[in-house]
Amino acid sequence: MVAPHQEEIVGSLHGIGVRQIRLVCGLVLFAYLTSHFLNHALGNISTDALAAGVYYHTLFWRFLPVAITLYAAAAIHAGLGLWALYQRREFRWKAVEPLQLVLGLSVPALVVAHVVGVRLSYTLFGHDKLYPQVLYGFWMGPPARLFVITAVLIIAWLHGCIGLHFWLRMKPFYARAAPYLFAAALLVPTLALLGIYQGGRTVAAESASHDWQASNLSPRQMGTPVEQQTLERITGFSLLGYLGLVALVLLARGARSLNERRGGMITLSYGNGRTIRVAKGLSVLEASLRYNVPHASVCGGRARCSTCRIRVIGDSSTLPVPSQREAFVLARVGAGDPSVRLACQLRPTDDLSFFQLFTANTASANAHATHPQRIGQERYLVSLFVDMRGSTQLAEKRLPFDTVFIVNRFLAAVSQAVIDCGGQPNQFIGDGMLALFGLAAAPQAACQQAVQAAAKIATNVEELNRFLEHDLREPIRFGIGIHGGEVIVGDIGYRNHMVFTALGDAVNVAARLQDMTKGLACEAILSDEVRLAAGLAPDDLPQQDVEIRGRAEPMSVRVVAHAANLSALLDRKATVAA
Q1: 95 falls in which pLDDT band (50, 70, 90)?
Q2: Dihedral angle at the C-alpha atoms of 307, 312, 318, 319, nearest 10 degrees?
Q3: SS3 string of 33-99?
Q4: Which structural domain, as residue segments, surrounds residue 76?
Q5: pLDDT tens, 479-521?
Q6: Are strands 432-437 and 340-342 parallel, antiparallel or unpaired?
Q7: 398 and 319 in one domain?
Q8: pLDDT at res. 197
C-alpha cells in the first residue's frame, strides 16, 4: 500500500513535462544572470570591487556540481527553445509570446563569442580573463563588441523577466509583489550597464600605462595569436552550427506543414453549429485560434490550467492517448471521464465533435486576463461558513418583512465581523454566509483571521440579541465551520450574473463542519489544520474525529462550545509569543 505522501510525490512527477523542465532550466540560468549582473554593478564602486565580486562569483559557479548544473541547464533550455519554435503553431494569444521566443533564440547567437573567448579559452588554454581583460576588449576593441554585449545583456534579461512573468502571474502573491519585482527588473540591469560603463572607463584610462598592459595583457591572460585564431574559428563554427539548427527547425516546420496538408483535412464540430476544416496535426485550441473561434484558455495553451477543457461527443476510444502532462492536469480537476480532454493538448486525427466546458469570454478568454484570478486560480484560502439557527420557526411567527429585517441584521453583524478581521463576505445563502480569508494574506494569517472572526461574530450576535430582546422569544443562535485548503477561485455564473467565489473540497468541508455544530451542540467547529496554523495550543480546545461525507478517513477537528472564547485564546497566544 502506497502512503498518501508517496502518492502526492508520484502525482507531482507525472505532472512534469517539457515546460516544467524548461522552467527549471530557465530559473537556473536566471539565477546565474542575476549574479552576473550584480557583479557588474560593483563597477559603480571601483575595479577593485569588481575583482572582489568576481572571485566569489567564479568560486561558486565554477564549483564542479554547480558548473555541470549550469551548462546542462543552458544546453537543455536552448534545445527546448528550438523545440518550442518547431512545436508552436499559433502565437495569437499575445505578441509578447513570440517576442519572448525570438529573444531567447537570439541569446546563444549573441553570447557565443563571449562564452568561447572567456570560458572556453580558460578550459582549453588556461587563459585567466577577468574584468580587466574583458573590459579592455570591449572598450578598446571594435565598437561592435560593446554593442553586442550590451544587446545580449538586455535581451537575456528581458527574456528571463518575461518567462518569470508567465510563470508567476497565476500565483496568489504576484499582484502584491509585481511593483517591487518590476522595480528590481529595471534597477538590476541599469546598475549592471552603468557598472560596465564605469569599469570600462577606468580600464581605458589605466591601459595607457605600460606597466598595466604588462600585468593584464600578457599571453597567459589574453593568449597567443595562434590561440586567438583557434578561438575565433571555434566561435565562427559554433555560430554557423547554431544558425544551421535554427534553419533546420524552420525547414522542419515547413515540411511538417506540407505533410499535414497532404495527410488530409479533418472537421471539428463545436456543438453549437460551428464547424471548421483544419489540417491534421493541429491541437483543438490551435485550430480555434487559427480560425478565430472563441475558446477559453487562461494559461495560453501551456497545460497549466484546465479552462480549455472540452467534452467529446461520441466514441472517445479512438482519440490519441493523453500525454503525461494532460493526464496530470485532468486528474487534478477530477476529470475521470475519458471524453473530457484538454483542447490545447488533444491533436485529433479524425473528424471530431465536442462542446466546450467553459464558455469563452471573447474579451479576455483568448488573451491573458488582466486579472487571471477572475477566470480561475488555484490558491490556499480559509473558508468560514456561518448559519443562523431557527430561521424557519422565526418566519412562521412573524410577518415576512419582519423576518427579512432580522435575517438581514444577523447577516450584517456577521459580515461586519468578517470584514473587521480581514476576510471577505462571499456568498449569502438564505440565512447563511460563506466568508473567505487569505485573498490578501498568507495562509497562517488567514487562519488567525478566521478564528478571530468567529469570536467577533459571537460578540456581534450577542449585541444583536440585546438589541432585539423585546422582539425575540429566544436569542439568535448560530453555527460556524472553518477549514482551509487549496481551492479554485474565479467568476462563476452566466453573462451579467457572474459572482466571484471559491470552489473545492475545503469549502465543502467547512460547510459540513458548520452542519455538525447542530449535532455536537456547539457554536463552532474548526479543523485541526486551522487550529495549528492559527497557533492555538493542542489543549486549548477539545479534539474529536468526525466522519466527513466524501472522505475515506476520519478528520480531526476542534469543538468550540462558545465561539467568543476564541478571542481570549488568541490573545493568550499573542502574549506568550511576545
Answers
A1: low
A2: -20
A3: HHHHHHHHHHHHCCHHHHHHHHHHHHHHHCCHHHHHHHHHHHHHHHHHHHHHHHHCCCCCCCCHHHH
A4: 13-257
A5: 999 999 888 887 666 556 667 788 888 888 999 999 999 888 8
A6: unpaired
A7: no
A8: 92
Task: Give me the pLDDT at residue 517, please.
Answer: 92
The three cell numbers of residue 98 are 513570440
Residues in the chain, total? 578
Record the cell numbers describing residue 402, joined without a space: 419582519
**3-state class (DSSP) for residue 15:** coil
Reduced to 3 states (helix: H, G, I; strand: E, B; else coil), residue 383 is: strand
Lowest mean pLDDT, pick from 110-114, 152-156, 241-245, 500-504: 500-504
- Output the DSSP codes for 414-479: HHHHHHHTT-EEEEEETTEEEEEE-SSS-HHHHHHHHHHHHHHHHHHHHHHHHHTTTT-SS--EEE
Assigned C-alpha cell, 521 = 451542540
* Lookup: cell for 348: 485529433
Same domain membership, residue 304 and residue 240? no
Q: Is the same domain home to 97 and 238?
A: yes
Q: To 10 degrees, what angle do helices 47-61 and 64-87 make? A: 80
**Mapping DSSP to helix (H, G, I), strand (E, B) and coil, where does residue 167 land?**
helix
Q: Check: CB of residue 238 under 8 Å from CB of residue 112.
A: yes
SS3 428: strand
Report if residue 365 sits inside a domain: no
**Mean pLDDT in residue range 447-454:** 94
CATH number of 448's domain: 3.30.70.1230
According to DSSP, the residues that pair with 317 across neighbouring strands are: none
Q: How confident is the model at residue 330 (pLDDT cuts 50, 70, 90)?
A: confident
Question: How large a percentage of the chain has pLDDT more than 90?
Answer: 35
Dihedrals phi, psi of 334, to nearest 5 degrees: 75, 25
Q: Are 135 and 149 in contact (CB under 8 A)?
A: no
Partners of 481 in the β-ladder: 385, 525
Report d(CA 446, CA 380) in Å as an integer.
Answer: 9
Closest residue by Cα to residue 566 from 523, 521, 505, 533: 523
CA end-to-end span of the chain, whole Å? 45
* Total tally of structural domains belonging to the chain: 3
Please tell me the pTM assigned to this model: 0.56
**Residue among 487, 490, 502, 380 nearest 442 (CA):** 380
Q: How far apart are CA 8 and CA 528, in angstroms?
A: 21
In whole angstroms, what is the distance from residue 578 CA to residue 99 CA?
A: 52
Compute the CA torsion angle 441, 444, 448, 451 (nearest 10 deg): 110
Strand partners, 342: 309
Please state, in angstroms and as integers, the Cα–Cα distance from residue 543 to each residue in 64, 157, 528, 531, 555, following that order: 52, 53, 8, 10, 10
How far, in Å, CA of 460 to CA of 479, rounded? 14
